[in-house]
Amino acid sequence: MSSVLNPAVPAGAYDQFLLEALPRARAQRAWEPADGPLPALYLSHGAPPLFDDGPWLRQLFDWALTMPKPRSILIVSAHWESAPLSLSADGPLVYDFGGFHPRYYSMRYDTPDASTLARQVSSLLPVHQHASRGLDHGAWVPLMAMYPLADVPVRQLSMPTQDPSRLLEIGARLRELRAEGVLVIGSGFMVHGLPFVTRDMVLNGAVPAWSSEFDAWAAEALGRGDVDELAAYQNRAPGMPFAHPTPDHFTPLFVTLGAADRPDAGVRTTIDGYMIGFSRRSFQTLP
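The structure assignment produced for this chain is given below.
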């Protein structure tokens, strides 16, 4: 049976999506200083199966179209945990996944030179400039949906720690970039309990209680801007540790909140629902 995990045509949904999206992407106007600061985003990135989920592709793209096209994008992904704090190069993509059709390992996302963005980031934070590392799938996969023309410069920032307070501080240091047309993104997955996936989740999209309860808790805390509650997720959130047996897909959220004008102002959910039982809640910060 064909599904996003077993597509009849690998990435066929993405091919169809491009036919519809590219004309609209070309018409998107560019950010100007009069637009004011861009929001900061947290998104659930989806991995290669995103390319086989037409509705999800369109949700990400439509979200991008609600904003002017950024001058550049700085993204923090769950898949690059590295200290000291490091900044990617304009290098080849990192295909950091296994077991998929060869089509996904030949996909390209050739974005423009991002040296200006690198200088902007370096003026705000002490960062190690990586010589060759490009974007990993937590970055290039969702960006291929949001900005399919690949015409926005992108750099990826590593996560040097999983400590929420330190990630909030990093986000705060990046805050002023938003007023310069830089889109700051934390890329993870609102629920990411891969070791606990069941056959019913894969075949029928069953949502386990540990996923729905964690999602409801996170949505409520995010809505009221309760950063302290979110930071205590390992001890306070229902569904743990099943929802996040490792912290890497939740903690990019703290870079996003730190980059907000007011981390306690609440957020606007832009995408919700589930993929193989995992909450894919995504949001943007409020002014």
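Interim note for the steering committee: The first helix runs from residue 12 to 27. The chain has one domain: 12-190+248-271.
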